[in-house]
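Retro notes - structure team

What went well: the batch runner handled both jobs without manual restarts.
What didn't: labels got mixed up in the shared folder, which is why I'm recording both outputs here explicitly, each with its sequence directly above its tokens.

Job 1
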Amino acid sequence: MSKQPGKPKGILKNKSALPSKSTEQHTPDPREVAIRHAQIIHSRREVEDQISESIIELSKFPNTRDSPYNASNPAPADAESFKDRVRLYQPSDYDDLIEERNANGLCGYTLCPNPRSRIAGGGTFKLVNFGRKDFNIVPTRELEKWCSQKCAKRAMYIKVQLNETAAWERAGIASIHIDLFEDDIDATTGDATKQREKEVENLEIEALEKTAQNARDLALERGDSAENGKMPKRSIKLTIREKTVNAPAAPSLDTDGQTHLVTEGYKTTFDPKSETVSQKNKSTDVKETTPKE
């Protein structure tokens, strides 16, 4: 018996293979979405309120101001409280804290108990380190934020550790830690730093002495004499003479005697031959018109 050809298979999917309405993706409830967003906004507001409250509290720091505690050696409780509260700050929040402390008359560095400096005299800008390599022109307002340059350095050391990311995105990260400027400096390192600073200072003094000695040697070569280690004032004979100045001659407008022939930049010219002929004709006419006696 011959085999019957097989039936062609259809390309359409069976109805049983199609997804049923019960297996379709569940559409979220709009009310649940609104509640979830409201909770997120509420949590963000709570973090912002905590930062605002901490700025008000830190503007009155430090709580312990008795000796031996100071800006370089703050009380441990104040230091820990400050680092814990400022860890979620953005740089703009830290600037608000500095302004709030200045409004209270305190130094911008939170752990400093001293009042901020007041620069005498008017002016919007001040010259800093005049005559040195680090000379600069700084706004007076920036100088009055701190009690000293050391506190300004301590405050900026804190600011560079802050992040621009929103506070609520970093609130759950426990690894964020803020270090103080003196935290990573022990006594040995501090002594070594002072020793290097002293060596640099001695080198600068030696350079200045060498420059002064070179100036004295040069003065001796010129024939000057130094008395009491000071360079004398050299006397120079000056002769003041009056310089003879010749008054300039006035320019001549009529150089060739024919300026009267120039009209609006054009100079009239005459032909000598035609002029002689016309004069002869005039003399002949005069002879012919003269009556005979």
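Job 2
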Amino acid sequence: MEELVLYSSLTAAEGVNASATAVSGVISAIQLHTGTHISSFKQNTSPANATVFTPNHIISVQEGKALLNVYTWTKEAVDQKIVLPERLSCIAISPCNNWLVGGGLESGRLFVWELSSGILWFAREAHYQAVTHLKFSADSSLVISASKDSRILAWRLGDLVSGNQDEVTPAWSASEHTLAVTGLEIGYGGTSGGDARVYSCSLDQTVRVWDAAVGTLLSTFILSDKPSALSVDPAERMIYVGQLLGGVRIIPLYETNKFSGSLEAVGGARRIITLDADHNNAWTLITSAPTAITALALSFNGLNIITGSQSGDVIVWDLTSRQIIRTLKSHRGAIGSIQCFWKPFENLTSKSKSKERKGGAFGTLNAVSRDSLKIPVFKRIVEVKDQNDHDVWCQVGNGIEGCDDNSEDENDWMNGSNDSERAKSQALSFFSDGGENSLRAKVQSLENDLSKLYGCYGELQNVHEQLWTAYSENK
């Protein structure tokens, strides 16, 4: 498995000087650690935050058009064109790969489609101006939307697909920003127990941290420059902020207490922290002239950051030394989105025994399997009849990532058709082959596992009490 960088760009502005090797109208896939060019998906000009991918597809909004381009990983040309109800400004896909949400460019409307059926479950005004960002929580239960109207709204996915869109209200809303939101991220953790955090930045020169469960403002960082992009490292130790005047600003979320030497969280309790324009936590790109950072992404291990700029340059940086590792293939337009992920070889290799034909750089797919993976035409209006006559299938248990490729079909992630059969099979295997004696043995095994779990919980509780005692003594 190799780590790839997928990035796209907007249409190049008139008069912009680009290098002779810069490309235009493509989505580029590059190996992160070698810089090797893998593929260019053609005929694409997508706005910021408007390119997403699934294990089988790349989906991008086309700038200035009510149109989606759909690509397969094995084909550089457009595989499908899907007409939309209106022009969209951004899209996002759920981690479970079942739902695609879009934000209206002029109307500020929020759209929710089911990928396996194309049914439009929700379409309603959510913001007063264009939606700039859409993010799903890690468990796909929450959708966060941000807009040029400076508001941030959180929506429960269950409410959005309930079929009662007129009664749907945001789970929470935040209006502390005073200008357009230019960056949005949601961290890991549960969205119901207060573990997950939402990070946002705005042209009002602030970065804010929110509780994803209830929308409580936790921290506000005041910057010396207007932020244009935002990313958070996988461990949520640092916030990286791209700036309109060029360069990247680092905001540490933990720092060492000068007196006790212990690591403490920065901010919290609605604290406001003003950050000076110091050089220790900020650096500028090595370019002939400062250029705005329009997109950011971090590698899986959090040691590298990939920056995309207004001039179309894409640079990989080492975060320890803050030196350029390599410069990737540049685009003629501003970079709209950058995503870093693992190369999906296994999920793209056909397991059919029929005759295969050669695909692209990502593997092979035969004609039958490629047709079965096509995304249905998206509905353009909400039809209650379609919703009432349709059952929503969700993948339970193993998803595409990390699943056993020899036991799953390529389109299981779309329809969940094997879930019920798998559950029946597991139930039958549990209650068969040995009768009562086998059942007693399995019950005993489960009781032993539960006993071990209680023991681990007790040890964890003791460690927590010791840490709390030490913290209280040093406070």
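One thing worth noting from job 2: The first strand starts at residue 3 and ends at 9.
We'll revisit the folder naming next retro.
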